[in-house]
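tool_call predict_complex ligand=DP6
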Amino acid sequence: MIGFPRQVTACAHANIALVKYWGKRDAELNLPAAGSLSLTLAELTTTTSVRFVPGAARDTLTLDGHPAPEPARARLASWLDLVRDRAGSDLHAEVSSVNDFPTASGLASSASAYAAVTVAACAAAGLDLDQRELSLLARRGSGSAARSIFGGFVIMHRGQRDDGGDAFAEALSTAESWPVRMIVAVVGGGAPKAHSSREAMEHCARTSPLHAAWLQTVPRDLAEAQDAVAASDLVALGEVAERSALTMHAAAMASRPPILYWRPETLTCMQTVRVLRAGGVPAYFTIDAGPHVKVLTLDEHAERVARTLREVDGVTEVVRCTPGGPAVVVEEPTS
Ligand code: DP6
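tool_result ok
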């Protein structure tokens, strides 16, 4: 039982997939249809506080200081039921979350949000879970969140079991010995995206004639990306990352009606990266469910890549990111 109210604060970092997750094998348990591979980014952080409150009538959610829209609150409330079940409690929670980057704009906010709330809520409920168990629980909130439990390069396993017990994430490397960088070019001011990744991937799976073909490409890309990380081979990893993103977006674009996240500036950034590469700079792009472009490179080229992207018309912000650490409690529970 949860004995008394205590607030716990945790922080987690966003992650950017280099081999994308785009499709589910079970929507209820939120099981991915294929594995994925990502890099956790130190500079994109969500900080979340959770307190279970005796007598509270329902769960509440504050996002960046404002009451969250009802669908986001309701989604969190169903997820909190999982924590309550495990802790043997029926107390509702007050959850307050702050992002230091634009929410729901394709900068992977659900990943850091559900990773942070998983760590904070479990600690507040007195649950002592290891990172694998935390990633299983975070996955129920958002598939990509399972990866943000860990720092550095992370692999998410598809798993085979119907109950999802083997669909967890795992750290591949802390990336400490390999100075990779991710330059995030925010396009169009970070406005909320038109389709959430959850709705879009479901729509794509249901209507896109290319969805099955996309899924078939993932196992090989995943194996190659893992080898590239193990060998610290940026060229190999970058090539996989670009084709994974482009194949995912091709499947999305072929949906009916189509899902098109790109803006003209998105394409300009992609071309800019190719020009940099032709000039000898190892830089590779990836794009998620939004118009922003994230560029994988090495520390020694990061300034040049960031400067070049800043000059693209319509790029409103450029964030130079380094590999981030795991999701952690930042404030010990007070009784
Ligand atoms: C394009 O993790 O947001 O960013 O599991 O439905 O919450 P749900 O989806 P979500 O999807 C992320 C999609 C992506 C690619 C990726 O991060 O792998």
